[in-house]
Structure formats: structure tokens, C-alpha cells
Amino acid sequence: MAAEAHSQIEAETPAGTIAVPAPTAWPMVLAFGLSLVFAGLATSAAVSVLGAVAAVGGAVGWLRAVLPREAQEEVATEPQPRPAVTLRREVVHFHVLHETRRAWLPVEIYPISAGIKGGLAGGAVMAIIASLYGIVSGTGIWYPINLLAAGFYPAGVMQTTAQIARFQASAFAIAFVIHGLGSLLVGLLYGALLPIFPRRPVLLAGFTVPLLWTALLHSFIGLINPVLNERVDWLWFVVSQIGFGLVAGLIVIRQERIRTWQGAPFAIRAGIEAPGLEDEAGEEEKR
To answer: Which of 74, 133, 138, 268 could form an S-S bond across to 17 if both were Cys, CB 3.0 to 4.6 Å?
Structure first.
């Protein structure tokens, strides 16, 4: 029966046209109705009832569009393009191993070690600036270190200046872990961002990112560490952030970049032996 209906449709189709299924919006109505049905489970029963009505209407309309005979419309056919003709006697291979026609930027990136080195160096400079603040302010070298760890202690343990200024091994360990992990993560972020913004990387790493990061911390640091939020000197905090950014950025941009593998064939990127691809690339270089 289907073959007979198809042949009948072809016979009725005028020359130079082709019969295609007619567009219909009923499937979208059905999908919208089902979405309202489930949305009503979280809102109200009236929404589900409305969705059920829309879903039933969409299903009925969709069935009427395809049964008992599928609705179709005639579309004019386009002439077939002329076959491509070439005078070349052999096939020219397009090698993308060493030359990329369309690339995803950046083409070159820094290795992971660059971000780690930059993060560690920047973290050391930031710790030195924070310790210098403790000496200049007269609160002591352990004061900024204990402020970083104060949020992990219950209320009353680190409230007075004397409590925060004295050395505490547990506070030093907590601050060391927080500062070290944060420095490594930001260093890795620098290693990923700087190749994307090749112009003025020192400006981006030394000033733009530290200022944005300081503004972000200023908005929610009170929820994480109320003691730090009450006692932090934001001027020195910004200076330490800029010092971190300058040193980390300079360390990262001085590392040698490596080319990405985006131009290599999939077989080489997947680690599959592909001697044919490598040989062809070598022959192309000799030419």
C-alpha cells in the first residue's frame, strides 16, 4: 500500500518539482503541552490541565497531518551542478601536520609547569609583602598569616589583636595550605589566560586580574572569614595582589611556548601509529 501511495504521489507531481513533507507546527504544540504538564507538578494543577489540553490538541493535529495521507508540498528542483574537471594527473594531498589553514586560538600555549612556577613565585612575593605589612603596622609578622586562617576557628579564639599576633602552629599550617593552593590555582589560570591575550600580558596579569580578583573577594569575604573582613587593610591587600600578578605573569611569559596538536591528524593526536602520515609530511618538507 505504501509503495502504491508513493507511486501515485510521484505521478501527480508536476515535472521539475519534488514532493516533500509539508511543514507543521503541531509537534511543537505537543512538546509545549507536555512541558506544561510536568511544570504543573511544581506549580499548580491548572498549568497541568492547560498542558494536557495543548498536548492532546498537538497530538491530534500531528496525526491529521500524516494520516490517512501525509500532507506534502511541491518544491522546485535545482539543476545538478556540473562535475568538477581538473587537468592534474595526480592527487594533491593537503597536509595539516605542520601548517594549519584554520586554527583555534591560541596556536601556542604555555606548559602546565609555567603556571606552577608562576604561582609559586607570585605566592612567595605575596607572602613577603604581607609579612612586611605586619612589621610596618607593628602587629607582628604572624598577624597577616593568622588573619588568613582565622575563619577556620570558632568565635572567640581569634578576636583580639594579641591572639592573632602570636605564633600558632595550626594557624600557620592552615594559612600555608590556603595560600599555597590558591597561588597554584591562580598561576595555572595565568598560564591558560596569557596565551589568549597576547597583547600587554603584564598589564593583564599584574593589574587587571588582581584588581578584579580583589573586587570579587571584597564582595563575599565576610561570609567566609569575618575576622579577615573586619581587620584587613585593603590597600596592602591590593598591593600584595599586584605583586603576585606581576611576578607570576613575568615568570609565565618567560617560559617557552609549545604548539598545540590541533593541526595534527586524529591518528597522531590519539597516539595511534601513523607512519604514512609522518612520511608524507617529511617528504613535503624535503620538497
So the answer is: 74
Compute the distance between CA of residue 221 and CA of residue 198 in angstroms, rounded to an integer: 32
Model confidence, pTM: 0.56
3-class DSSP state for residue 17? Answer: strand
Q: Which residues pair with 21 in a beta bridge?
A: 72
> Looking up cell 509545549, which residue turns up?
32
Burial class (CB in 10 A: 0-12, 13-18, 19+), 164: buried
C-alpha cell at 31: 512538546
Which of 3-12, 131-140, 154-163, 231-240 has the weakest average pLDDT?
Answer: 3-12
- Evaluate if residue 81 carries a pLDDT over 90: no
For residue 91, the 8-state DSSP code is: P
CA distance 238 to 214: 7
Residue-wise pLDDT for 174-185, tens only, equals 999 999 999 999
Question: Residue 179 and residue 149: Cα distance in Å, rounded?
Answer: 10
The number of residues making up the chain comes to: 287
